[in-house]
Structure formats: C-alpha cells, structure tokens
Amino acid sequence: MGSQGGFYQSKEFLDLVKSIGEARSKAEEDRIVLGEIDTLKRRISDPDIPKRKMKEYIIRLVYVEMLGHDASFGYIHAVKMTHDDSLLVKRTGYLAVTLFLNEDHDLIILIVNTIQKDLKSDNYLVACAALNAVCKLINEETIPAVLPQVVELLAHPKEAVRKKATMALHRFYQKSPSSVSHLVSNFRKRLCDNDPGVMGATLCPLFELITIDVNSYKDLVMSFVSILKQVTERRLPKAYDYHQMPAPFIQIKLLKILALLGSGDKQASENMYTVVGDIFRKCDSSSNIGNAVLYECICCVSSIYPNPKLLESAADAISRFLKSDSHNLKYMGIDALGRLIKISPEIAEQHQLAVIDCLEDPDDTLKRKTFELLYKMTKSTNVEVIVDRMIDYMISINDNHYKTEIASRCVELAEQFAPSNQWFIQTMNKVFAHAGDLVNTKVAHNLMRLIAEGFGEDDDTADSQLRSSAVESYLHILGEPKLPSVFLQVICWVLGEYGTADGRYSASYITGKLCDVAEAYSDDETVKAYAVTALMKIYAIEIAAGRKVDMLPECQSLMEEFLASHSTDLQQRAYELQAVIGLDAHAVESIMPSDASCEDIEVDKALSFLNGYIEDSIEKGAQPYIPESERSGMLNISNFRNQDHHEASSHGLRFEAYELPKQTLQSRIPPASLASTELVPVSEPMYVRESYQTTIVPSASSDAGSTELKLRLDGVQKKWGRQTHSPATSTSSSTSQKTVNGITQVDGSNTSNSRTRETYDSRKQHVEITPEKQKLAASLFGGSSKSEKKPATGHKIPKPSSHVVEKSHARKSSMEIASEKKASFQQPPDLLDFGEPTVKSAAPSVDPFKELEGLLEPTTQFASAENHGSTAAATKSPDMMGLYTETPAGIYDKDDSDILSGLSNPPVTNMFGGTTSTQVAQSSKGPNLKDALEKDALVRQMGVTPSSPNPNLFKDLFG
Amino acid sequence: MIKAVMVMNTQGKTRLAKFYEYLPVEKQQELIRGVFAVLCSRAENVSNFIDAESIFGLDSRLVYKHFATLYFVFVFDSSENELAVLDLIQVFVETLDRCFKNVCELDVVFNYSKVHTILDVMIFGGQVVETSSSEIMKAVEEISKLEAASNSIALIPKSASGWRSR
C-alpha cells in the first residue's frame, strides 16, 4: 500500500477507515459511521467548499453508503459534480450518481441534460463516463433523450467508446426493446468492427438477441464460425491471449452463440464441427481457462446436432474433468455430464464411480450439482435409490430454499417413476414429514388427486389397494408429534374419503383419530376444517350405508366447540355436519355421494338458475344489467382517457433541444433508412478517421450488390489475419473436413464408445473403490446398462480379475490359481468372489448371462419389499444395499457348496447354505474384506449377477 | 450477465460492492450479509462455486475467490461460464495488482474510485467488455493521465501533485 506516494485521500478518511476496521461490534461501527455522516452533512452544505475537498467528501459518502447507511442527503451534491468541467471531478460525480441513484430517482431529470451534453464531448473519457451513467440511469422514458447521441458514438474513433456505446444500446434494448428495435442491425455491424475488443463485446448483446430469436440470426453462423476459427488460429493481437490461450473469453462467448444457433439445425451444425473439433484438440486442459473453453465446447456439442466424433471428444473431456482433483472441474464435469447424457445416455455409466464420489463430497455445491444430475438421469430402475438419497440429503440440510426444491423434485420423480403404490405413499410421507411446510400446497393437492384417481390404470383393485395402504400408513403416522399442516390436511382428507372404505377400520375408530387431530392441532384452523369435513364424510358414508351413527362423546364436544368458533368457516362446517347427521339415508346419499371426489362438477358460469329471479326483478321494475363492454357512454370516456394518457407518456418530457430542431431530426432518422446500405450507422464524417474509412470502403462496396445487410467474412479475416490469408482457402479446407466428418459418421457410435471406455477403464483400474460405492453405483447405473453389459464386459474388467473371465475355458484353472494364492494369504473366503463363474460352469447348457440377467430383474423387484425385513439386520448399511441381499437361491446349487467346502470354511457353508456363507466368510476376512468386495462388485458390474450381499449386514449378526 | 461484484474481507466488511441491477441500499446489505454467511461456512479446498439461487433469486450463480484477506465475489446468470468467471476474477485481481504493485486490502479501500474505474473498464452494464489485463491497464492509465492533466488546469497547480490520483 502507499506504493505510489501516499493515499490521495486525507487523513480524516484514513482515520475513518481505520476506526471502522478496528470496530469491535456492529453497534460501534454504526456509531462511527453516524458520526461521519454528521460531519459530512455539515461540511458538504458549505457553499465555498473547494472542489478537491468536495470530491473527497463524495467518496466518503459512497463509502458510508456501501456500509449500509443512508447518504441521500449528499445525492444532490454528486449530481452537481457531474456538471463540473474538471474531468476528475466529473468522473467522480458520475461514479457517485451511478452508485447512488436508480433510473427512477427524482434527481435523474437533473442529470439527463448533462449526460446529453457529455455524450457529445470531444474528450472521449467524458463520453465514456456519460455512457456509464446512461447504462445505469436511463429508463424507458428517457431513452429517446440520449438515443441519438449514443447512436452517434457507435462510430466513434476510439474503440473504448464504440464498445461502451454498443453496450449502452444493448442496455436500452433490455429495458425497452421497442425503443431501439430499428437499431438492432447495429450489433451486426459492430461484429465487423476492426477492433477485436469491440467485436468481443458485441458478442454479449448478440448472444442475448439470439437467445430470444434464433432464426433471424442463422445467416451469421458462417461468420461466427470464421471468427472462432481466426481466434483459435491466433489471429487476434497478443494482448488478448490469456495463459497462452488465444482470446479464451471470446472463444467462450462464440461457442455459446454457436450452441444456440446449431441447436436442432443439422445444416448449421455441420459448419461448426470442424472448428469445435479443432478447439477440442488444441485446448490446453492444464489451465483453468483452457478447461473453461473445453467445458463450453462440451455444452456446444451437446446442444448442436450430434456428431459422433465430437461426442467422443466431449466424453473424453468429461472424464478428464471428473477425474481431476479440483472440485471446480468436478463440478463442471458433473454439469457437462448432465448435458451430454441427454444425447448419449450410455456415457453416464463409465463415470458412475466419479459421480458417486461427488455425491459424497463434503462440498455442498458439488453435491447439489450431482443431485441435479441424478434427477436428470432418473429412470424407473433407479428411482428408489435416487429418491432415497435425495430425501436423506433433504433431511440433512437447513437451507429452506434448496429443501423446497429438492422436495418438489422428489415428489416429481416419485409421481413419474414410482415402482409401487406402497413405495410411492411411503416416499410422499417422508417428504411431507420432513419438508411439509415447504412444499407447495399444489403438491399436496396432487397427492390427494393421485390417491383418489389411482395411477391411471383401469385396475380398480390396485387403486383400492393404494388407498388402503395410504390409510394404514397415515393412521400410523398420526401417532407422531408435530406434523406439518399440509401433511395433516392430506391425512384428514384421505381418512375422510377412504378411512372406512376397505372395511378394516370402523367408523368410530377413524372419527376418533380425526377428533384427536383436531384437538392436537387446535391452533391450525385449516387442519380443523379438513378434520370436520372428513368427519362429515365418514358419517355420511355410514348413514348412506344404512348404519346407525353414534357420535363419539369427544366428537360431540368438539362439535360444540366449533359451533361457537370464531372462524366462520369452521362454524359453517360444524353446522353442516350437524344438519347432515339429522338427514335420512337417501338425502345424504345425494348430497354426499361416496367416492365422488374425482367426478367433474359442472360449473354453471352463466348462473342460469338465477334467470327466474332476474325476470321477477325486472318485472318489478329493476334496471337490466348491461355488460361492461356494451356500456357505450363509459367506453368513450375511458377510451379518451387512454388516448390522453398515451400521449402524455410518449411526450411527457421533451429532451430535444428547442433551438436546433433540424439537427435532432437528422440524427433520429438514420438508423432505419440508412442501415441497409451503410456500415456506419450515422454518417458523421468528422468522426471517421482516414484509417477507419479505408477498412470500410471495400466492404461497403462489396456489399452493394445485395440489398440486405450482410457480414463480409473476407473483411473480418483481413482485419486480424495475416494478410496472406484468403477466404478461398478457408472454405476449401472446411469442405474437405466436412467429408471427413461424413466418413466418421458412418463409423457409428459403437466403435467410438468402446474405444473411450477402453481408455478410460485402463486408467481407472488401480483406483481403490469402496464396496459401498460400488454397490451404489450398480444400483444407480446398473439398470441402464444391462443390455450393454454382455458384449462389453471384456473392456470393463479391471486387471485383478480380468483373467478369470477373459477366456471361459481357462476360467476354472485360473480361478484355482487365484484361490491358492488367496489361501496362502489367509483369506480363503475370497474365493467366493469367483463363485459366479463356478455357477456358470455348473449349468453350462444354458447361456449363463441370459439366465442371470433374468434373475436380476426379480431381485430388484422384490428388493423393496424385502428391504423391510432386512432392515433390522442392516442397521449400519443404507437401504439400497438391500437390493443385493437377495440372491436367487437357484444359482447356488450343490456344486457351489462343494467348491466352498474345498475352502477352509466348511461348517459355515453347511449351516447357512451358499448364500449366507458368502457373507460370513467375507465378514471374517478382516483387512482384505475391501479387496474382495471390490472385485466382487466389479464382477457384478460386468453384469454377471448380484451375488454376495452386503457384508456389513451380517457383521452385526455374526460378530 | 454479471449481476453483482463484491469484494469483502474475511471479517465480513464490504470493501467494494457494485450491483448491475439497481437495488435499494438495505437490500444490498442483506445480500452482502447473505453471501458472507455462505462464504464463511465454506471449507478450504472446495469448489469456488456456490448455488446462489436462495440469495439472489432464480438463475443466479456465484463464483468467489479468496485472496489473502479478501473475498472476490461475482454473481451472474446462466449466460456466463463459471470457470471463465473465475478467470475473470483472476484478471481483475491481476490488474489491481499491476495497478497498485502488490495490491492489499487497504489499497482497495483507499482507492475506491480507482478500483471502480478498473471494474468499469472490464464490465459495462453487466456485460464483460474487456478481458485483457494489459488493455485494462492501458485504459486506466490513460484515464489517470487525463484526469491529472485536467486537474492541473482546473485547479491550483501546487495542490495538484499532492492529491492526484494514481
């Protein structure tokens, strides 16, 4: 600090900053700042204050406001400073007003005039400062006041000014598209600016314009591609290099734009393949910025029309990201993966372990991103695992915003993919119990509707099963304290509709429960209302069924309380209940038909049932009703007012100078009429320097042939390229590349995919992987890959076990060798990992893979049901492990146990049979348990079979 | 687009705050506090990205970088690339460093307007317009020079050297 000879602020400011820095508490800081405000207030209103002092005070004022205190008393002084002639003071003034004021502030009117004047200033810095202010302080109403000047500045000789003027125009477009819609072509023109900085800046507004309307910018595809090509070929000035990358920020913007333009457009995409492929190749993946560009390439590739070769490069890049140690890169990798799996879902599989690592990472950001990815790749096969994970995470966090989001995602996934009714109800219960107050009430209504309508199948028994399981679980849950209100509403509604439907629970039991709810949550009116209505339904069903209704005493007392309630809604419901109970069966049947919640009620919007009443009234002399649209007298008045108002808004303020009407006229006309033929939007020769003209003239003349404004790529190339470069060569090279692309497309994705997998696997073989993760991976990704597992297994086997499966005839011998090896290490049970191959040899007549595949299916299916059985044992392991605890008994025939008995653990085998012995053996393995499981899981991953259950599960049982 | 740029120290004191959409002072303070609370809770060696939707509303991401006693925080929407913004912070800090020769927290505090000038050259109306550190330096130096020149004309010469901006 103080590197250049002291701070230019006074000692007072120094002291202020110091004392604030040393403040021990917020209160102390506030006291200091308030003291400062007093001082400033006193000094700033002094009329003879020297300018430099004024500047310092304003800076101090800005500082004070940044700390959160009101500095509005000084705003007017900041405004005054903008009028000053000194550049320094003026700039300080502009800085202060842009920080202090917003576009609708009263003081703006005092600045507009100054801005107008400054935009025309000869000093480009003044113009820049004014443009800064324009961006922040000009609103829709004041745009016309400065628009002509801003448009003029688009052709300013200084590139900094052109850049800022372009951005200001963009800002106008954001605020009021209609006010500058005729000027949009200027952005296209600035793209050909001979300063790369201006060109780069213009990409920002173009990106936004293209986002809004892709189709009208399709003609620019070739231009963007050619610019990108030039950038990657290092044709931009060295100053734009960053960490040895040529203008990476411009590359990123261009890739973003290309992604938009190529989305779903094969023809446009084909033009991009070459250059994007080049970037993939050239990108330096060791630097942060190189990875940023790579990431953008992946986004682009996944957005444009798919090209197998590029997808392969993208998959490669993703695997590099995911394997990186940097959390940032992992994050980007997960994000990129989420984009790419939309096109090639199979690539998720090769990264399953990395994804699971990210899921368990302590970094919350990464975790959330991973959940987002999981959400995108949820299928009916893995929904249970994913939703369970999500709910666990949801319970663990405090951030309400994210909790809400993840809860609604859980609900969405559960609704979409639920494997069974019971699971669905349980999942919803969990979500409601933990985030009930956060989820949208729509979700609750959705749940009620789902329970009422069933899952859309015409299967009535399934629907009634769903309902009774819902009723049962709700009755169970009601025992828990402090349930969220929304959840209670659902419970009451379901109990009312279906509580007695399956005949398992008596009306008095259900009504008793409902009364308990109403009493326990006596301060929640909505819940009480739901409870009363539910009670009414139960009684109505009873009466309609011809049974005698006795109201429970607690219910009676509750009703008495409600009849006198302060809430009119509750009161009315209670009275209705009373009335319904007094009616006979037939009447009740017609007011409250049972299970009619799904029936559509036709709403008579015309209120035709009141017609008779109206006729009566008219006969009695009432005025007939005239619809609003037909009230003629009123219409005129309102119309008039509208017009008036409209005029007022468009001409509310006159910003044009009165004395020089011609000039303003001139500057307002040009854009629309001249835009088509001229490159420079406003032809102000005084601004255009000689050098500038020379670059424009040739391009303008080449454009003369076409009436429409087009980009001249040759012009662009000449500007940054070495002069030798001609457009002809570039096009020829790109066409030749295209044919190359065509060939690779024929190659198909199979070869490319397997190739990537191969390389990936060879790299990951030595990574140590915990068994839990393996299992999780299998359950998350396994479902998707079943079909591919068979042929691809060869690539997927990690070294330690690869020799086992490589050749089937050598299987047994190699296995024996392995077993001997292991035995000498004192882990006999390790052999069990190779139990699968043995099984296959035991039943050689049938294709083992096919058979095992078939076994896989049922396993996962009854896994959820079985889960409950095994949870007692599986206290330590997550639920999803349960998926693999069930081993189809058929696999383990006698041969199996024979082999097992060859190992040093025969008694266990006899006691528990093939399956259990596996676990016992494994659990007794000690330090090498992990090793064995790793292999086991990998074998399973190959698609052989889910064999050995979770070891932890049985550790508890067997010590 | 970039929504906000903040610089705060590890104690939570704001050193610079620039919002590209207007927000009332109270709201700004609330956001800054919210950001600081999240930053504090972040461990070392985790990613530099934070999902900022709960603080800044839909479609907002936050990238921060920790330098000595300062956090540099950029908030932006989906039209920017996180890694690139991380490098943008790097560019910003590099430029500050060149400008102040070994920049430290106090440089940022005392040369408030200068830091704003640098930022204005880089980001204009929420869009990144300049990413080359040397170009930024060039622009800033020229501004300083012209400012100084206009000063010496407009003001009493002898005081000019004493407080001219660097």
From TrEMBL, chain A:
Main location: membrane
Record flagged with keyword Membrane: yes
DNA damage found in the keyword field: no
Family designation: Belongs to the adaptor complexes large subunit family.
Localization annotation: Endomembrane system
Gene3D superfamilies per UniProt: Leucine-rich Repeat Variant (1.25.10.10)
Ranges for domain Clathrin/coatomer adaptor adaptin-like N-terminal: 47-581
Biased composition (Basic and acidic residues): 755-775
Positions of the UniProt region annotated as Disordered: 718-829
PANTHER family: ADAPTIN, ALPHA/GAMMA/EPSILON
This protein's name: AP-4 complex subunit epsilon
Keywords: Golgi apparatus, Membrane, Protein transport, Transport
Subunit record text: Adaptor protein complex 4 (AP-4) is a heterotetramer composed of two large adaptins, a medium adaptin and a small adaptin.
Polar residues composition-biased segments: 737-754
Main function: Subunit of novel type of clathrin- or non-clathrin-associated protein coat involved in targeting proteins from the trans-Golgi network (TGN) to the endosomal-lysosomal system.
From TrEMBL, chain B:
Keywords on record: Cytoplasmic vesicle, Golgi apparatus, Membrane, Protein transport, Transport
Record keyword Repeat present: no
Protein's membrane topology: Peripheral membrane protein
Xref: Pfam families: Clat_adaptor_s
Cellular compartment(s): Cytoplasmic vesicle membrane; Golgi apparatus
InterPro entries per record: AP_complex_ssu, AP_mu_sigma_su, APS3, Clathrin_sm-chain_CS, Longin-like_dom_sf
Stretches assigned to the AP complex mu/sigma subunit domain: 1-146
Family annotation (PANTHER family): ADAPTOR COMPLEXES SMALL SUBUNIT FAMILY (PTHR11753)
Family membership noted in the UniProt record: Belongs to the adaptor complexes small subunit family.
Protein name as it appears in the record: AP complex subunit sigma
Lineage: Eukaryota, Viridiplantae, Streptophyta, Embryophyta, Tracheophyta
